[in-house]
Amino acid sequence: MKLGLLFSGQGSQKPGMGLDFLSDPLFSELISAESAASKLNLRKIMASEDDELKETKNVQPALVAVSYDIYRMLQRDLPQMPVAAMAGLSLGEYGALMASNSLSADEGLPLLADRGQYMQDDADRIDSAMAAILNPDVSAVENVCDHYDQVWVANYNSPKQLVIGGVSDQVEQAAAELKEQQAAKRVVVLRVSGAFHTPLFNQAREKMHQRLQSVHFAEPTVPVISNTLVQPFAADDIATVMERQLAVPTHFGEDLQYMVDHERIDATLEIGLGKTLTRFAKQVAPTIAHDHISTLADYEKYVKEHPEWN
């Protein structure tokens, strides 16, 4: 078997996420270390009793910490797990880069705290929105976006889902136009804090350019497929790509196809909250096996099902 690991992105967070894993000593130890590195109380953010997860600046380090720490548990319990490639949706790329030993957690968590703040600043500055386009006519969606000066395709998630983003009133107009043209089965305006992966986040991109100058990236030990390039990251290019990533479209569906075609994966495992990426993977590669780990119960089941990897 060749396994493709998928790391969840922003939007999958929910109050109480990852708290069940705190009963595992390794997970608990890692969360404590990451809280110190990021200068954030990750346990409090994960619980979100005071709505901490409504803020991008909190979501980003907490979500990556949860998925990365689950991966570290898998390394301990399934050391022979046959990982052939990794990918993450936007924010999830940081979890994949950490898991592939390209970015250390000590550098990654403070970086994510800053990235989240930069994106929060841009989200607060402009009233923006996103809309999911289900079963789209891709050319028609792109053409409609071209009619507006501040609406863009932000995410090419799978053959059955695109996401557009931009200033709120124009996104609503574009959504209505797409419905009128019957350019998709459904158009759903999303509740998000900002239109990520559009030029509205160019100020955050500029701040990330400066911030990334001090971050060290090593060559990934396992191929990590970039949402921006649709090819594996190379150490020398990671900082440049991760800067661009903030304000240009993601191509997660093509990443999945790349892993099938070039890395020959025959199964995927989504690590993190929810199973959105698993749904995309089933749409891209319906003939291979797919699984996900969101809870401690999921984790224990997966480990029990794969004794050959321990």
Helix and strand pattern: EHHHEHHEHEEHEHHHEHEH
Question: Regarding CATH, which class of the largest domain?
Answer: Alpha Beta
Order of strands, widest sheet? 2-1-7-8
Compute the separation of the termini in Å: 15 Å
CATH superfamily grouping of the largest domain: Malonyl-Coenzyme A Acyl Carrier Protein, domain 2
Question: How many individual domains?
Answer: 2
Major sheet: 4 strands, parallel
Weakly predicted, low-confidence segments: none
What does this structure look like?
The protein is an alpha/beta fold and 310 residues long. The protein folds into two domains: 3-124 and 199-309, 3-Layer(aba) Sandwich (Malonyl-Coenzyme A Acyl Carrier Protein, domain 2); 127-190, Alpha-Beta Plaits. The chain has helices at 25-38, 42-47, 56-77, 92-99, 105-125, 138-146, 168-181, 202-211, 238-244, 252-262, 276-284, 296-305, and strands at 3-7, 83-88, 128-134, 151-158, 161-167, 186-190, 267-271, 289-293. The strands form two sheets. A four-stranded parallel beta sheet has the order 2-1-7-8. The longest helix is centred in the first third of the chain and has 22 residues, at 56-77. It is globular. The model has no long low-confidence stretch (mean pLDDT 96).
Topology:
Elements: E1 3-7, H1 25-38, H2 42-47, H3 56-77, E2 83-88, H4 92-99, H5 105-125, E3 128-134, H6 138-146, E4 151-158, E5 161-167, H7 168-181, E6 186-190, H8 202-211, H9 238-244, H10 252-262, E7 267-271, H11 276-284, E8 289-293, H12 296-305
Parallel strand pairs: 1-2, 1-7, 7-8
Antiparallel strand pairs: 3-5, 3-6, 4-5
Helix pairs in contact: 1-3, 1-5, 3-4, 3-5, 5-8, 8-9
